[in-house]
Predict the structure.
Amino acid sequence: MKFKNNNLKKNFLIYGFGKSGISSLNYLKQKHKCFVFDDFKKKLNNKFKRFIISKSKLLNNNFDYIVISPGININRCQLSNYLKKNKNKVITDLDIFYKFNPEVLTITITGTNGKSTTSKLLYEVLKNHDYDVRLTGNIGNPILKEIKITRKTIFVVEASSYQLAYSKYFKSKFSLIINISPDHLERHNTMKNYILSKLKCVTKQNENDVALIANNNLIKKFLRFKNIKSKIIFVRRNNYNPLKNKLINKNFINSANFQNLNFLFELSKYMKLNLNTVLKTVNNFKPLKFRQEVIYNTKYLKIINDSKSTTLSSTIPFLETNEKVFWILGGLFKKGDKFNLNKKYYKNLEAYIYGKDRNIFYKLFKNKFKITLSKDLKSTIKLIPKLKYTRTKVTILFSPSAASFDQYKNFEDRGEKFNMLIKRYLSIK
């Protein structure tokens, strides 16, 4: 199925009416016939009443395309059977964008951890080169919300596995898969499915495109079975780049951030960017809120709010230190998650675990290092020694390594609560 005769009026069903669903409707409704359906009727604002279609009517309607939102799980939704029967018609907002804007230079960034930081950093680098650059996808606006696009516009797209899984046509000039570790297996069921969804941003590329991929054996395994046409560059965590010697930004101190920077430096070569501008941007870059964010820092005490962390793999680089770490974590444990920290770091670590799945974490960590359990974050922070006046170098690391939905609306809500509590109990302004 292709978007043939784009000028002809088509029948679109937009399934899922969050941000991407609304932007899809606004993009298509002027030239095409659109219908909207959502499992949760409360999302269907009266403003869009004329587009809403009932389940019974849509089942008897013949749509040309079904635009599915990232939050929809085909296996667990009201239209599950219908979608499976019409799988060839299922597309995403990314597909719509590409089919109507094939000439626009697009850079897609995906991976398990660090997508948002890497995307924002690249956006800042391109902006400092005076490009017309847009930051979209998981971060920024939905891709179809952007207006006044020219052939010189560059799109930086942070793409999740949910966004890529059902895409059929979306293609990028540059695709970056910055890392892979177990995540979202409650949705994808297996690592194979998860990895294949990430590879969607590579498999549609042609000979003129470039894929920068983490040097990961699992990714390489599945790449072997795909007919990849683009130029593939494997990026290692320990890749040497002389720019690193000029790095003074203390926010990029761990191995994970070094790997993300390797992707940026490698991409800069292919895009022929000014390396001085790249380096200046990196050195002036401030971390995104609740992503490895240093909220307090003295000679002896550092406090990091990494509420965005939902997997153990995202936390590991912060634990690879010879300094004392009081690690606060907990929430909903991610299926298939693993703890691959070198044993030599255990002696520096104390874990304070809260939340619904605290006993799962306890079983995973017992006999490794000291563990303290509590019901919630407030109780946990009360148990941590008041370290404001410590004379040995210590880090309080809030990196939950778990989903937040047992006690919080989202990771932002969780991050705000941590900031409030830590200031109160440690008497920090």
The chain has a mean pLDDT of 90.
